[in-house]
């Protein structure tokens, strides 16, 4: 029994020790893993680059990274890819200066997707056009997990444009030299650099369309990773801020600060004419010398909130003339909405016309 | 750590943008400016006033008709036919069903009621509604008077409605004195007559023995100045409207006096006097004090005070042709205000003080026109073979004048026109009429 007991006890002790030790290992490794991921991606990218180089540059879409900042630049890139990503790429190589930079950048973004989805490359092209989704891409960037990244890419394609913009900068130098593999790794290591490059590259990028082709896509991934490795927290914070800004813009509109595009000239003119038709002017009266401003609120269906009409300014006559001018304006506003069953205004811009101020100025109608 | 800081800075910068953007996009409400509207009569519903008692039915009908005629006659209102009414008005209530009136596009609604008291006096009540504002326009009012004055009761209602809608005082409860003419053109008799502004209730103030011209109401409407040729010489008389008695004005011996007009205070009188062949303008003050206001070799006549009594506009040919001049009420240097082609005469200062009406003869045609008191913005409102002698409605909105047709059978008649040049129409007067002068609003 003693022996058995001892054996059992020692075995348990060993197990406990292992568990404890194992736990320690696990904990520490955690941070490292993320770095490892980055590296992996770069390798695959290389593979992808070697093959499809030309064609898939388009895939770059990955964009996911942190495209947000340089959306503007991206737009241009997109178009290029679509046309014929492949052909373009090659030409680029020739142009040493620009091409290099371009290829590198774009490819970089793609890399990520590439690894898992060499096939995606083709998709990429189409994606790039979607640039519009851009917004979505931004969110993706935050998702540091590489695995996720892959997914995002597929969807995110849109972001590409954006993503590319940032990447370009970084990759350019390194990527240009196809040699790559190694370099790519390096890039991963310098997330911070990538980020910094992003801003500048964005603006320049757009022009280097030829570079487009440089599908080497791989590079793209790099940027994403860079972000992760370097400062996932920071990026996520930025992303959060951006999304928060959008929310603020929306809620701001709800609070009175109109969001979205204002009424077009045509929309305003149509509204003005609608009220004008009902404004009856007595050119021989003193009220014809009065300019009066009337403010009122409207419901989303284009109707005037009856008791909201109030005079905000008036000039040019006696109190009685001003009162008459105000009443004429009020009748015009109320009567024309009645005839039309509410004013025809774009509901999606309600925030812009929820409150209206109409100035009735009979100057041009006065008797001369 | 450097990078995170960079991001933080960027994040902060971005965070600030969305707040600024909306402000840049639009500040405050949607603003539009309308500088051109439509000029058309305002649709108004005037259901027959409710008769409170069978004996009031006829009065209600007649009073309602006069109210409608008054308002429509201005050219500013269009009465909606009762056939269009969705529901008849059978009670004089403080509220109405606005929906029914909006449906027929009535912008204003006048409801009223008429009752006859045991002593025969009439009581007229009315309310005015701003249909599209779903609210009454002012409070209800009522007027009471004898049956003889039923038209005045109607005019009072019309004035109140007009005033509330236009912001200006009315002119319906007013009278017009004029020269009623009869006989052939070469032997015409002329005598003073007075009527309601719309031609009703005409009465003669003088007999047909003498030739009378240019009557003018006093600011209170209780006296009339006019020129009579009954002595062979033009002589100014003052007629008391209440007693229909007259007295000649004390003027320089041997002078011909004409073209009189009261000062705004109703006490002083300005007129033209031809002494030794030269016409100038004089002022006669209470007590008989006479002051010569002009002293020129030319003909100065047709003086008219500004509403504030500080200036006088008159006609003079000192420049070679009759033109209009303005001088201080106490006399002194006059400045010419008419510079257009043709001849200008009979200027009359508007009760509002902003315009001067005049007669203009140019290229064989006569016009009634208006201009600013400085002579600017001259506008001719009419044109015909012979238009002359403008007089302002008490609110300065309408001008009445004489129009005479051409030819041996030409006859004078009274016409009125809105100061905007619209709504030119003939005043319904029995017989030939000329030289109108509008009274102030009656009280």
Automatic annotation (TrEMBL), chain A:
Q: Where is the composition biased (Pro residues)?
A: 104-116
Q: Where is the composition biased (Low complexity)?
A: 131-140
The biased composition feature labelled Acidic residues covers 59-83, 93-103
Question: Which region ranges are annotated with the description Disordered?
Answer: 47-234
Protein name listed in UniProt: Cell envelope biogenesis protein TolA
**Which organism's genome codes for this protein?**
Palleronia sediminis
Automatic annotation (TrEMBL), chain B:
Protein localization: Periplasm
Superkingdom is: Bacteria
User: Could you give a single Gene Ontology term from the biological process aspect?
Assistant: cell division
Keywords on record: Cell cycle, Cell division, Periplasm, Signal
Query: Mind telling me which Pfam families this protein's record contains?
Result: PD40 (PF07676), TolB_N (PF04052)
* Positions of the TolB N-terminal domain: 30-135
Keyword Disulfide bond assigned: no
What InterPro entries does this protein map onto?
6-blade_b-propeller_TolB-like (IPR011042), Tol-Pal_TolB (IPR014167), TolB_N (IPR007195), WD40 (IPR011659)
Instruction: Supply one GO CC term from the record.
Output: periplasmic space
Q: Where does the signal sequence lie? A: 1-25
Regarding protein family, the annotation reads: Belongs to the TolB family.
Q: What does this protein do?
A: Part of the Tol-Pal system, which plays a role in outer membrane invagination during cell division and is important for maintaining outer membrane integrity.
How does this polypeptide assemble, per the annotation?
Answer: The Tol-Pal system is composed of five core proteins: the inner membrane proteins TolA, TolQ and TolR, the periplasmic protein TolB and the outer membrane protein Pal. They form a network linking the inner and outer membranes and the peptidoglycan layer.
Q: By its UniProt entry, which PANTHER family does this protein fall under?
A: PROTEIN TOLB, PROTEIN TOLB HOMOLOG
Question: What is the name of the protein in this document?
Answer: Tol-Pal system protein TolB
């Amino acid at each position: 029994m003693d022996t058995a007991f001892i054996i059992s006890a020692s075995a348990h002790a060993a197990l406990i020790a292992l568990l404890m030790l194992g736990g320690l290992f696990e904990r520490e490794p955690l941070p490292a893993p993320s770095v490892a991921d980055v590296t992996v991606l770069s390798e695959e990218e290389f593979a992808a680059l070697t093959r499809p180089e030309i064609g898939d540059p388009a895939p770059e879409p990955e964009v996911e990274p942190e495209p947000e900042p340089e959306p503007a630049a991206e737009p241009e890139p997109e178009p290029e890819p679509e046309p014929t990503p492949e052909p373009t790429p090659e030409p680029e190589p020739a142009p040493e200066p620009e091409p290099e930079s371009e290829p590198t950048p774009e490819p970089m973004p793609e890399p990520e997707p590439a690894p898992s989805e060499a096939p995606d490359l083709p998709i990429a092209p189409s994606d790039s056009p979607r640039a519009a989704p851009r917004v979505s891409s931004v969110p993706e960037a935050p998702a540091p997990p590489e695995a996720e990244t892959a997914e995002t890419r597929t969807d995110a394609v849109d972001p590409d444009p954006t993503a590319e913009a940032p990447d370009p900068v970084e990759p350019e130098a390194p990527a240009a030299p196809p040699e790559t593999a190694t370099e790519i790794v390096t890039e991963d290591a310098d997330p911070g650099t990538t980020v910094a490059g992003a801003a500048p590259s964005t603006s320049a990028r757009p022009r280097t369309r030829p570079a487009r082709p440089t599908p080497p896509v791989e590079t793209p991934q790099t940027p994403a990773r860079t972000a992760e490795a370097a400062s996932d927290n920071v990026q996520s914070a930025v992303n959060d801020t951006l999304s928060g800004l959008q929310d603020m813009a929306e809620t701001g509109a709800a609070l009175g600060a109109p969001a979205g595009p204002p009424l077009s000239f045509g929309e305003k003119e149509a509204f003005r004419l609608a009220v004008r038709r009902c404004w009856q002017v007595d050119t021989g009266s003193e009220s014809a010398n009065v300019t009066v401003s009337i403010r009122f609120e409207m419901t989303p269906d284009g109707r005037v909130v009856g008791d909201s009409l109030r005079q905000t300014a008036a000039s040019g006559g006696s109190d009685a003339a001003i009162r008459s001018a105000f009443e004429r304006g009020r009748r015009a506003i109320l009567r024309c909405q009645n005839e039309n069953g509410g004013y025809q205004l774009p509901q999606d811009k309600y925030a812009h016309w929820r409150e209206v101020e109409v100035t009735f100025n009979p100057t041009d109608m006065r008797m001369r | 750590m450097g990078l995170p800081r960079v991001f933080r800075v960027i994040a902060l910068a971005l965070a600030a943008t969305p707040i600024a953007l909306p402000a840049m996009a639009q500040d405050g409400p949607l603003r539009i400016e309308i500088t051109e509207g439509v000029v058309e009569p305002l649709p108004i519903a005037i259901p027959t006033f409710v008769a409170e008692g069978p004996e009031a039915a006829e009065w209600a009908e007649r009073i309602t008709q006069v109210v409608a005629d008054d308002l429509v006659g201005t050219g500013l209102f269009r009465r909606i036919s009762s056939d269009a009414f969705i529901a008849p008005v059978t009670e004089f209530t403080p509220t109405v069903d606005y929906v029914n009136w909006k449906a027929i596009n009535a912008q204003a609604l006048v409801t009223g009621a008429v009752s006859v008291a045991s002593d025969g006096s009439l009581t007229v009540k009315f309310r005015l509604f701003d249909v599209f504002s779903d609210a009454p326009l002012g409070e209800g009012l009522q007027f009471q008077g004898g049956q003889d004055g039923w038209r005045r009761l109607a005019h009072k209602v019309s004035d109140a409605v007009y005033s509330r809608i236009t912001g200006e005082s009315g002119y319906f409860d007013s009278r017009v004195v004029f020269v009623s003419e009869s006989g052939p053109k070469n032997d015409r008799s002329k005598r003073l007559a007075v009527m309601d502004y719309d031609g009703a209730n005409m009465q003669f103030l003088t007999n047909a023995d003498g030739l009378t011209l240019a009557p003018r109401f006093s600011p209170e409407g209780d006296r009339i100045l006019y020129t009579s040729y009954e002595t062979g010489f033009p002589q100014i008389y003052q007629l008391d409207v209440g007693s229909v008695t007259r007295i000649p004005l004390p003027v320089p011996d041997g002078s011909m006096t004409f073209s009189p007009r009261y000062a705004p205070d109703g006490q002083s009188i300005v007129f033209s006097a031809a002494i030794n062949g030269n016409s100038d303008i004089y002022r006669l003050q209470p007590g008989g004090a006479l002051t010569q206001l002009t002293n020129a070799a030319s003909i100065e006549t047709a003086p008219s005070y500004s509403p504030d009594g500080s200036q006088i506009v008159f006609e003079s040919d000192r420049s070679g042709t009759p033109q209009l001049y303005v001088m201080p009420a106490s006399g002194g240097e006059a400045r010419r205000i008419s510079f257009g082609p043709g001849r200008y005469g009979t200027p009359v200062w508007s009760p509002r003080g902003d315009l001067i009406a005049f007669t203009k003869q140019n290229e064989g045609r006569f016009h009634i026109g208006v201009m600013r008191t400085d002579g600017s913005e001259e506008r001719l409102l009419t044109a015909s073979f012979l238009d002359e002698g403008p007089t302002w409605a008490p609110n300065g909105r309408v001008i009445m004048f004489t129009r005479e047709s051409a030819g041996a059978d030409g006859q004078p008649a009274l016409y009125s026109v809105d100061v905007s040049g619209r709504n030119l129409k003939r005043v319904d007067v029995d017989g030939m009429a000329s030289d109108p002068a509008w009274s102030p609003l009656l009280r």
